[in-house]
Specification:
Layout: E1 11-14, E2 20-25, H1 31-40, H2 43-50, H3 59-66, E3 73-82, E4 85-96, E5 102-109, H4 118-132, E6 137-143, H5 147-155, E7 159-163, E8 166-175
Parallel strand pairs: 5-6
Antiparallel strand pairs: 1-2, 2-3, 3-4, 4-5, 6-8, 7-8
Length: about 180
């Protein structure tokens, strides 16, 4: 295992429906599971996450998502154990912006796991990690039509701003 891996950030949670999930930092060894996770997402979910139609995420993108430094690039996954291993059903990540005071974040939940509570667990872990790193703000771009994400973000204390010259996108910002 990578000696930089922040094992102290691994936590199990019991969901309202009784299922147990693990929220943990992603590992470079998760590359195949990350590929499977992304491949299982519907076209609409991929569109809402990447703001464009994505047929199949590239190997380069999957590698970028899994080979992180846990400092300037942090990512948490939600994993559920099965008899044959683990399945990734959600992820949230941030990348620190130049200047080191702010980060850009993204989150995506598997279609069958939306509204299960794991988005809140992932965001809680991500916000805690950003605060621990002494980041001042977390921000992300959200499609204006993604009302569920905008409502979720407001519930987490994000403020919504217009993007100058772009009526299709909103900027959400949270002071940490």
């Amino acid at each position: 295992m990578d000696p930089r891996y922040p094992a102290h950030l691994v936590h199990e949670h019991r969901l309202f429906d009784g299922k147990t999930v693990t929220i943990r930092p992603i590992r470079v060894s998760d590359e195949a599971q990350e590929r499977e996770f992304l491949d299982r997402l519907s076209g609409e979910t991929l569109y809402l996450r990447f703001h464009k139609w994505v047929h199949a995420p590239s190997d380069k993108l999957v590698h970028f998502f899994t080979d992180i430094d846990y400092d300037r690039h942090m990512a948490f996954v939600c994993a559920i154990a099965h008899d044959n291993g683990e399945e990734l059903v959600g992820e949230a990540r941030y990348v620190v912006e130049p200047g080191g005071k702010s980060c850009d974040f993204g989150i995506v939940i598997a279609d069958g796991w939306q509204k299960s509570g794991i988005a809140g667990l992932l965001m809680d872990a991500l916000i805690r990690a950003a605060r621990e790193r002494k980041l001042e703000t977390m921000e992300g771009l959200v499609l204006a039509s993604n009302t569920a994400m905008l409502r979720f973000a407001r519930g987490l204390g994000f403020e919504t701003e217009s993007v100058p010259g772009d009526l299709t996108t909103k900027l959400i910002v949270k002071k940490l």
